[in-house]
Design brief:
Number of helices: 5
Number of strands: 7
Radius of gyration: 16 Å
Number of domains: 1
Shape: globular
Strand order of the largest sheet: 1-2-3-4-5-7-6
CATH superfamily: Gcn5-related N-acetyltransferase (GNAT)
Oligomer: single chain
Strand content: 25-35%
Structural class: alpha+beta
Helix content: 25-40%
Distance between the termini: 41 Å
Length: 178
């Protein structure tokens, strides 16, 4: 007989200024884990050296259009999400839409409900702000993330170029109603 395995529920909260160093490390690590196997070391380094610095994360955290949430599990920072409030791309029909700019979770926490909890937290935060839709970009060669987003109601609505070093990659825009 199989014994059920239970996991702690993650605690999700607004990121604070004193989280920025740990958040930057988490962001760099989870991005690297997700994309290093399918990108050149040169392109990873070119992108990460700019995108994953404490200065860059501080700048993003201070942006009035951005909100960061962190997920903690058993006292450890294990995931994060970033909501951003730009004008949506033309392919997003609902103009009152918010972007899920990032959602990453430590590899050892995949399948433990952390990403789903972060997603639900972001949906609720967006609804509280009276947004009617959410959109995001996901790499065309990231089927795991695409499946996760489809499971949470997102559908492909367009595409755009994401410059990864000198590699102009195609990201899909996905959107869903809230």
């Amino acid at each position: 007989m199989r014994q059920a395995v239970s996991f702690s529920q993650p605690t999700i909260r607004l990121a604070a200024r004193n989280d920025l160093a740990a958040l930057t490390e988490l962001a760099a690590r989870t991005f690297y884990d997700a994309f290093a196997p399918t990108n050149t070391p040169e392109n990873m380094q070119a992108y990460m050296s700019v995108a994953f610095t404490v200065e860059q994360f501080t700048h993003e955290w201070e942006d009035a259009l951005a909100t960061f949430y962190v997920a903690e599990l058993d006292g450890r920072l294990v995931g994060y999400a970033k909501l951003f409030r730009p004008d949506p791309p033309d392919c997003v029909a609902e103009r009152n839409a918010i972007e899920l700019s990032r959602l990453y979770v430590e590899q050892d926490c995949h399948g433990k409900g952390v990403a789903a909890a972060l997603m639900e937290h972001c949906f609720n935060a967006a609804r509280r702000e009276k947004f009617k839709a959410m959109f995001l970009g996901v790499w065309e060669h990231n089927p795991r993330a695409q499946a996760f987003y489809r499971k949470h109601g997102f559908a492909r609505v367009g595409e755009h170029v994401f410059p990864m070093g000198d590699d102009p990659q195609i990201d899909w825009w996905m959107a869903r109603a809230l």
